[in-house]
Amino acid sequence: MVLWNKEAVNTLQWDSGKSLADLVALEVGNIGENLAIRRAAYLNACDNNNVCMYVHPAGPGPLSVDNCSMGKFGSMVVLTQSASPDNQLSVEELGRQLCQHIVGMNPKSVGSLEEEEQSHAAAVGHVEQSDEAEQVAAAAGGGADVVSNASSEDQSEIKETPKEDESRLVFQDFLMDESLTVGELLRQNSAEVTDFVRFGCGEELEEEEDAGA
């Protein structure tokens, strides 16, 4: 993925020889509304990669000119998917849903799918151990309520532990089904996200915050 900041993107040359900044200035004069291009991203699908995109609001007929879709928010994702009869979603549908998730949840990085899987396995193992301890205590008579309460606290703690990791895509609860993490969704569909980008009209950018500091 190639990213351009405001300075770089506005110096790009159009077919007419004019810079993008010149074209924007002309359009501002034509429509009488202020607008600015603040950044841009270029993603290229190669090998087995797929690039999927989504703009919001989509609606029944999204505003599109010359294959350029426009909206208040937009996202693109690069993913790979291995062929498997167990895959529940096509790469196109999976990519679209991931882009919707990225627009809605605003992750900051992809995160490690391997680490997410290990974290999920550890959490499941802990819950199973708690359930087993509760059954043993109940069979022994008494103490079941105590074990059950402790088990509930442990499970709550496990669920709340990765709060600091929620900015990582694969650790986030999936927007369309919160019983799954994005990592679980990817494993169900033999897929992996290699990169993504999210844009929003008027959003604050780090470089602009640094300049104003």
Automatic annotation (TrEMBL):
For this chain's UniProt record, which GO biological process terms are given? mitochondrial translational elongation
Predominant location of this chain? mitochondrion
What UniProt keywords are attached to this protein's entry? Answer: Elongation factor, Mitochondrion, Protein biosynthesis
Kindly list the GO molecular function terms attached to this UniProt entry: translation elongation factor activity
Q: Does the keyword Electron transport apply?
A: no
| Bias type Low complexity, positions | 136-152
Q: Which SUPFAM superfamilies match?
A: Elongation factor Ts (EF-Ts), dimerisation domain
Q: One matching Pfam family, short form?
A: EF_TS
**Per its database record, what is this protein's job?**
Associates with the EF-Tu.GDP complex and induces the exchange of GDP to GTP. It remains bound to the aminoacyl-tRNA.EF-Tu.GTP complex up to the GTP hydrolysis stage on the ribosome.
Q: Which family does it belong to?
A: Belongs to the EF-Ts family.
Indicate what this protein is called per its UniProt record. Answer: Elongation factor Ts, mitochondrial
